[in-house]
TrEMBL record:
Residues 10-351 form the Porin domain. It holds the Pfam family Porin_4. Keywords: Cell outer membrane, Ion transport, Membrane, Porin, Signal, Transmembrane, Transmembrane beta strand, Transport. InterPro entries: Gram-neg_bact_OMP (IPR050298), Gram_neg_porin_domain (IPR033900), Porin_dom_sf (IPR023614). This is Porin.
Length: 367
């Protein structure tokens, strides 16, 4: 048994100790809705289109989550939630099937001393570091780092079918352990067996570490994806105005990725920087992405600016491909739960001229 699997097994064993009797429980409905209007022109194309966006700043979702106090600081918890489109009302997500709960579907147990462990469909190791270490957060429509990490770039002729660095933000059927806060650091361990008969070594595995000390934030992850997820919102075009193509991912194409990121809150602005690399085993395509961004308070809102450069290389390509995206925007809160935003994104591809762009505005509400 590998050291990683022994660690997961030890975490499971430590968490399923005998527990005190149940005390009380809470269940809540939660969600977020996001819609807007945009105009877009793909890189290398002269054609423009105007369209309604859904989930371009944050993918629209709703769900239910609950906790039950088990006494002695122990809690049981669960969550189930889908992505959906405000444009059509349809559930969003699923490359091979339509996932009702494509965002999350898990149950777990936690202790303030031992940490938390849950089982089901949940975020993979790349998700939290990517979300927290760029100015646009988890923006599927506007975030350059988000595009480079998760989204398919079918408009780049040398790399048709490349699915960013990583196919999805979540894994199916995983065991996920979160450590207690350790002097400002939190460790997450992820393991999802491939469930392929006769191939025990085929599995998704990885870990991340997130550190916060005052104004300084640091993060790193390792992720090996050997079996594709059944799909999240990245499998749907509603949040990808820059890409008119369909997702094409090689079946069980193993990808290994590494990431390091830092942030610092200077007061007048918060700055982010990340570096990541990934390699797909079937295509042998290698991708390296560097990203820098800032969030600047301005007139009650925030100015957001971000640039990411991804260099793709591999034997399947006639030449190296360089993708660069830059975004600038303004996000203004109308209340604690509602904000409006306006953004501009420009995309440059070394194999396609002229540049592409997307401009638009929208409203987002949380509940």
């Amino acid at each position: 048994m590998s050291a990683f699997r022994r660690t997961i097994a030890a975490a499971v064993a430590a968490t399923v100790l005998a527990l005190p009797a149940a005390a009380q429980s809470q269940v809540a409905v939660f969600g977020l809705v996001d819609a807007g209007l945009a105009v877009n022109k793909l890189a290398g194309s002269g054609a423009r289109k105007v369209y309604v966006t859904s989930g371009s700043m944050t993918t629209s979702t709703f769900g239910v989550r609950g906790t039950e106090s088990l006494g002695g600081g122990w809690n049981a918890y669960f969550e189930a939630s889908p992505f959906f489109s405000l444009k059509t009302g349809a559930i969003v997500g699923g490359t091979n099937q339509q996932n009702l709960f494509g965002r999350s579907a898990f149950v777990g147990i936690s202790s303030p001393v031992l940490g938390a462990i849950d089982i089901g469909r949940g975020n993979n190791p790349s998700f939290l570091p990517t979300l927290r270490f760029n100015a646009f957060g988890n923006s599927g429509g506007w975030g350059p780092l988000w595009h480079a990490t998760y989204f398919n770039f079918t408009q780049y002729p040398s790399f048709a079918g490349v699915d960013g660095l990583i196919h999805d933000t979540a894994w199916d059927g995983q065991v996920h352990y979160t450590s207690p806060n350790l002097a400002g650091a939190t460790v997450n361990l992820h393991y999802a067996p491939g469930e392929i008969a006769g191939r025990r070594g085929v599995a998704n595995r990885g870990a991340n570490i997130l550190y916060q000390n005052g104004a300084l934030g640091l993060a790193a992850y390792y992720q090996h994806t050997a079996v594709e997820s059944s799909g999240g919102a990245t499998a749907d075009w509603y949040t990808r105005p820059f890409d008119a193509g369909a997702v094409r991912v090689p079946t069980n194409s193993a990808t290994t990725s590494h990431f390091a990121g830092a942030s610092y809150d200077f007061g007048p602005l918060k700055a982010f920087a990340t570096w990541q690399r990934s390699r797909q085993e079937i295509s042998h395509i290698r991708a390296r992405t560097a990203q820098a961004s800032v969030a600047i308070p301005a007139r009650g809102g925030r100015v957001l600016a971000e640039v990411a450069r991804t260099r793709y290389a591999g034997p399947a390509a006639a030449a190296e491909t360089l993708l660069q995206e830059a975004a600038i925007g303004y996000d203004y809160p109308l209340s604690r739960r509602t904000d409006v935003y306006a953004n501009y994104l420009r995309s440059r591809n070394s194999h396609a001229r002229p540049d592409g762009y997307t401009a638009g505005a929208g409203i987002r509400h949380q509940f």
